[in-house]
Amino acid sequence: MESDRQSADTRILHTRIEIADARPNVTPLFQNSAFLSDSPYFYTRKGNPNCSELESVLAKLEGCKHALAVTTGMTAINLCLRLLRPGDHVLINELIYGCSFKLLKDHCSHFGISLDVVDLTDSVKWTSKIRKETKMVFFETPTNPLLKTICIEEVSRLTKKTCPEAWVVVDNTWATPYFQKPLELGADICVVSATKFYSGHSDCMAGVISTNSDSIAQSISSFRFYGGAILDPHSCWLLRRSMQTFGLRMRDHVQKLKDMAAFLNTRKEVVRIYLPETNQRQLKDYGCILFFELDEKFEEKVSAFMRSLELFDLGTSMAAVVSSVAQPYTGSHLSLTEGEKSRMGIKKNLIRLCFGLEDKSDLQKDLEQAFAKLHLTT
Q1: Of 36, 89, 347, 361, which one has the greatest count of Cβ atoms within 10 A?
Q2: How far is Cα of residue 188 from the mean position of the Cα atoms in its chain?
Q3: d(Cα 270, Cα 292) in Å, to the nearest integer?
Q4: Do residues 32 and 42 make contact, with C-beta atoms less than 8 angstroms apart?
Q5: Of all residues in the chain, what percent are helix, strand and coil, respectively (each to 5)?
Q6: How far apart are CA 236 and CA 200, in angstroms?
Q7: For the domain bounded by 246-374, which CATH number is listed?
Q8: CATH code for 49-243?
Q9: In terms of Cα–Cα distance, which of 78, 178, 197 is closest to 138?
């Protein structure tokens, strides 16, 4: 046979098994960059079976026509901004993740796009900022920080009334489509940092862009392809696996949050707890993340309080199986100026807690010992 006369090096390179009839009960990892010419796939920068399966799952969860997986949540926002052109006008809500705020400001400044920061809970004030050049309204709900609720339906209706062609973009990271579906409430685009609840295990980064618009999906798919922003096969595989426990985790997060919020309400060291409004129209339920303010007399002990917690990870990890603690002032909103933080209401005594899947009594005991240390003199 011809193959018998080939060198060992050549035979090694060209030996492959046929997998068409393998029929595994879990889709394997397609860790390859390219496909043969007769494959329906072209190149992993454009598409991959792991990415296609994940996107199909996420589209069903969202109840939408298109779900596009990208490298991070910030990539998702960045690709949406590619829809804009010089001379366009953008409105963003004043309460927003610090990195999103910085990206939006820098992008608009660099490309000659005008930007207004508004309070989308005040329809009289923010609608006065709409003009014929307005092409995008971008916001999170619940907001980061302080968990305020923005009425998606109202913002969409009022935006389209003046600017029918403007895009309403909602960052749905903290609610997730499990509890809130912005596209059903009038939004044109929904973005999610899949690094958070979708992954849930702090082991991969990803973002998702969802829409019912064929033209928006086509444009963003093109941006993703030429910009090399598609999610890699391994991360797609990990996310697909995580989605199998997504509902279980979200339901546990809801109950854990209720229990822990009730506990924090009993603590005299806590002067305010921030939770979003839930109802059966927009945000149907909510879990995991809350903010609280320590009594101002403990402001200089915030860092020590967080470090004394044993079951809460310090850092950027959140919305995962392990609990975490952070100070927005020095963490998620570090890039903001002092004035911007002040206008947002971000104080040094504001703390974010994310409750994982640990036993609630263990978390309560950990918080109790940390609260006790606040009263110790140094």
Answers
A1: 89
A2: 17
A3: 7
A4: no
A5: 40, 15, 45
A6: 13
A7: 3.90.1150.10
A8: 3.40.640.10
A9: 78
Q: Measuring CA to CA, how many Å separate 38 from each of 24, 34, 69, 143, 331?
A: 22, 12, 24, 47, 49
- Strand-pair category, 134-140 with 313-314: unpaired
Exposed (0-12), middle (13-18) or buried (19+): which is 315, by Cβ within 10 Å? exposed
Nearest to 288 by CA among 72, 144, 74, 96: 144
Q: Distance between alpha carbon 363 and the CA centroid of its chain, in Å?
A: 25
Q: What is the rounded distance in angstroms from the CA atom of residue 139 to the CA atom of residue 92?
A: 6
Q: What is d(CA 352, CA 67) in angstroms, rounded to the nearest whole number?
A: 30
Q: Residue with structure tokens 């004035």?
A: 339
Q: Which two tokens stand for residue 1?
A: 């046979």
The helix (run of H) or strand (run of E) holding residue 192 is strand 189-193
The single-letter DSSP state of residue 321 is: S
**Residue 215 to residues 16, 48, 289: CA-CA distances in angstroms?**
39, 22, 35
Which pTM does this prediction carry?
0.94
CB 188 within 8 A of CB 213: yes
Beta strands in 107-183 (DSSP E): 114-118, 134-140, 167-171
> What residue segments make up the domains of the chain, in order of their start?
49-243, 246-374
Per-residue pLDDT of the chain (378 residues; tens, 9 = 90+): 566 789 999 998 899 888 888 999 999 999 999 999 989 998 999 999 999 999 999 999 999 999 999 999 999 999 999 999 999 999 999 999 989 999 999 999 999 999 999 999 999 999 999 999 999 999 999 999 999 999 999 999 999 999 999 999 999 999 999 999 999 999 999 999 999 999 999 999 999 999 999 999 999 999 999 999 999 999 999 999 999 999 999 999 999 999 999 999 999 999 999 999 999 999 999 999 999 999 999 999 999 999 999 999 998 789 999 999 999 988 777 777 888 888 888 899 999 999 999 999 999 999 999 999 999 965
Is-contact 312 306, C-beta < 8 A?
yes
